[in-house]
Queue: 2 jobs
Job 1
Amino acid sequence: MPGAIYAEGLVKTFGDVRALDGVDLDVPEGTVLGMLGPNGAGKTTAVRVLTTLLQPDRGKAVVAGIDVLAHPDQVRRSIGLSGQFAAVDEYLTGRENLIMVGQLYQMSGRDAKRRAAELLERFHLGDAADRTAKTYSGGMRRRLDLAAALVVSPPVMFMDEPTTGLDPRNRQALWDVIQELVAGGTTLLLTTQYLEEADRLAHDICVVDHGKVIARGTSDQLKARTGGERVEVVVHASEHISIADEVLRGFGKGEGTIEPHIRKLTIPVTGGAKLLAEVIRELDARGVEIDDIGLRRPTLDDVFISLTGHAAEADENGGKGGGGAVGRQKKGRKGAEPGEPVAPSGAADAAEAVDAGVTTNKEA
Ligand SMILES: Nc1ncnc2c1ncn2[C@@H]1O[C@H](COP(=O)(O)OP(=O)(O)OP(=O)(O)O)[C@@H](O)[C@H]1O
Ligand SMILES: [Mg+2]
């Protein structure tokens, strides 16, 4: 039986741009799917199709057991949506916005008021509750929009980059609310640019690029295929590099790298903090003085670079990433200038790096 969110072969084109190029999804009931992907990957388009806001050119979607194309009205009654761009009524106060949503969902006036007050408190909007939303800051609007999506707890929720622009305290508040919702049985599709967020909340993660799902798996599986853990050591003196190298090889699970100019050695490992302690003891026993040492785990950057291709490659190859109709740009990526085109070649790289347990759709 398909899950609470199911899609098969979704295609959506805008002129020359294939925003969705054959997307399949299957999210089991009561779980969270984290959808990651660079700007322009097709995440919002997927959410809009699944929430009935946009007709796909091809493909099938079933949400909460209802065919999205055949019965969009019924689907709308079973879902909640928080969009990338806050959809609040500027001329109503925060409180009025939330009460209005409650009433749209046929809550009694009393329940709608109570729920509004509760959510305003949770998202730290109590002080601003009775001001019109047009006086709100960007982060405040975002929080109000999220609160609006949470007035009722529908069986299936969609959240498009819910925490972009939120400060750490409010991000945490949202994570808590999401965890409660899911514990209560809600199925959630969440798009995000933050692996940490997907890590905390998502049972499964799919990485989308160029309208295709290029990898899916649990957070651990994706990290493992990205290269897993590494020990990084900076030795104090250049003459110690070769001894340190020998020591690290004894612990390593693959080829390491040496950057002599900064006296830094890196080696892939398994074994976590316990192994790190052993490495330190051994280096010490061999008389190697250490300036810095640490265990490094893959970050969102690493996962993106491994799966979707490195921004720098676009430069080396004469900006081939800019060949498409749309300039693409990745958020939060070190080394990428705003507006810099990103190489589209990554899907194939990702497929080569496939690891057990992670399914990858290689481009035909
Ligand atoms: N209404 C539209 N008209 C024309 N092109 C569109 C439209 N909506 C989306 N696109 C294009 O489709 C592609 C996918 O866009 P989409 O908004 O789904 O990306 P995204 O993954 O949500 O990106 P971001 O991380 O920036 O939010 C982009 O190339 C975008 O320019
Ligand atoms: Mg988007």
Job 2
Amino acid sequence: MFVVNAKNDMRRAIARAVEARPEVLTHSFSDYSVEGSEGNYYRVTIRQFGHCLGVDCACTGGQFGNACYHAAAALAEHTRLVITGAAAPAPARDRNLTYVESDLRAIRRAAESSRDFETADEIQRAVRSALQALGEYELGLLPKVGSAAA
Ligand SMILES: [Zn+2]
């Protein structure tokens, strides 16, 4: 983690972010995934420490406390969310997705009380897989910033 303050020069990281224009996915306010140079994504979390922001990036440089361009890109999005007042960018969730998720959880609970362990196990596996697919589908619905911001 590194702290955003006067001691940490972020000019290089910012210049690199401007040049690379990585895609930034917003999971929630303070929680982002930023596209890396290989097309992979790094998780970036931003936390408030008193009057400073602490930034964590899962990339190698970030793990060593360096201000990487993923962090710079996430900070830009973080700042945009604060300035535009969209600090909690929870996109209105499709009501049907909520129903599907709640039904899947009900199926899982019903399977837990089954005495037929083999069938219960199969149901658990199917529900897990469906919930994961649902999560991935929703991740694809998130607004994709970074590339769209001019
Ligand atoms: Zn990084």
